[in-house]
Amino acid sequence: MMADSFFENKRILVIDQSFKDTNDRTWCFWETQPGFFEQIVHHRWENLRFFSADYTDTIRIQPYQYKMIRGIDLYEKVSRATSTRSNIEWRFEKVMAIENEPGKVRVRTDLFEYTGLYVFNSIHFTENGLPAKIDKKGNHFLLQHFAGWVIETDTDCFDPGTATFMDFRVSQEAGTTFVYVLPTSARTALVEYTLFSESLLAREAYEAALKDYIGRYLAVTDYTIQHREFGVIPMTNQSFPLQNGRIIQIGIAGGQAKGSSGYAFRFIQKQAAAIVENLRSGGSMRNRLSLADRKFRFYDGVLLRVLQSGRMSGADIFARIFEKNPPGRVLRFLDNETGWVDDLLIMRSVPTRIFLPAALQQLFSW
Ligand SMILES: Cc1cc2nc3c(=O)[nH]c(=O)nc-3n(C[C@H](O)[C@H](O)[C@H](O)COP(=O)(O)OP(=O)(O)OC[C@H]3O[C@@H](n4cnc5c(N)ncnc54)[C@H](O)[C@@H]3O)c2cc1C
Q1: What does the alpha-carbon distance between residue 52 and residue 166 come to, in Å, rounded to a whole number?
Q2: Where are the domains of the chain?
Q3: Over the stretch 219-240, which tens digit does the pLDDT of each residue have?
Q4: CA Rg, the chain, in Å?
Q5: 309 lines ligand 1 (CB under 6 A)
Q6: Which of 20, 27, 98 to mutate to test the pocket of ligand 1 (most atoms within 8 A of CB)?
Q7: Within 13 Å, how many C-alpha atoms sit on residue 209's CB side?
Q8: Residue 282: predicted pLDDT
């Protein structure tokens, strides 16, 4: 909205329960062009490495770049940019409820009440801060949970031109499990231990797995941990209400985390751009998924079904897809940007005897 003069004379209130002054997350995503947050891209890679038991490769992803943005850089950029706008105000309060009223919407916080024409809501009003599960046939729900360390070494240990996108050589006992390694210099890397499963591990288990991976696969024993992060992202094909009256759901609360990968950052940017375009053109907000959105939601459902049934491991699925397709097609597919021909070529990479029954079951929601 700040980038569009249409909103210059609109009063915008941003409410968050806390001021963001820590680097609580790192976002990675891929793009072919300079993006909206190009100036704060912390590092970028043109080569991605993939490891599994029977397929290992280093893939050049041009025209894509895999980009990293640190949470703190984004928070500071937004905070600085908004500080010069008299029409944008921040309040640090806990939102307790959001209610539609005739012609307006009311937000109740722990301190005050506000009314506005629209509310863009990214809060899940649940105890665990995750979307409420909708118990319906055909809905699958996994969690992507991960712990990451930024480690620093005294000697050159990493290739800053190549990121490890997925390393499945770790134990798969607790579910689909892999590690990313994102080197930002020869001596610094973010190493992230990630699982797709139904429940979280004990905190110590992530730390032990990271330590083991760094020693065993990176062959690094002398390092200091500069930063730690932990996250949980819902992986689901369930439908999220996009809009309720004047309340527009955004971010993960608006269903913008891809069900089969957990990637959300670019989806959120695309949703934000679409909302801005709708508001400025006076169009009504889109409250239904497009045909393409529904198609990808269906694919996500099929993949989640296969993962939950255990009929094929996530390691094998991703290995087959990466092995048998050019990287551009895979990245477009993961971004929900492929057409039918590319979709069919991706589907041909995975075994029909597993995916066809799963697709039929998903279609008829057995
Ligand atoms: C550690 C981590 C790493 C991630 N890495 C990636 C990645 O590499 N690539 C990718 O695509 N996605 C990634 N994601 C997923 C996704 O992009 C992020 O979770 C993203 O921040 C989601 O944006 P959001 O706006 O939905 O939620 P958030 O960014 O979580 O924003 C929600 C906001 O609501 C505030 N809030 C919550 N409750 C209240 C309340 N009651 N009152 C007032 N304020 C409230 C919170 O303080 C927060 O600021 C990651 C997520 C995490 C947690």
Answers
A1: 8
A2: 5-135+237-280, 141-235, 291-364
A3: 999 999 999 999 999 999 998 8
A4: 21
A5: no
A6: 27
A7: 26
A8: 83
The arithmetic mean of pLDDT across residues 41-53, rounded, is 98
Helix (H) or strand (E) holding 364: helix 352-364
Q: Which fold has domain 5-135+237-280?
A: FAD/NAD(P)-binding domain (3.50.50)
**For 181-203, what is each residue's pLDDT tens digit?**
999 999 999 999 999 999 999 99
Label residue 195 left, alpha or beta by phi (over 0 means left) and psi (-120 to 50 means alpha).
beta
Which has the minimum average pLDDT: 200-204, 280-284, 333-337, 338-342? 280-284
Residue 287 has pLDDT above 70, yes or no: no
**What CATH code is assigned to 141-235?**
3.30.9.10
Q: Ligand 1 pocket, 224 CB below 6 A?
A: no
- Phi, psi (degrees; rounded to nearest 5) at 146: -155, 155
Query: Is the CB of 265 within 6 Å of ligand 1?
Result: yes
Q: Is 25 in the pocket of ligand 1 (CB under 6 A)?
A: yes
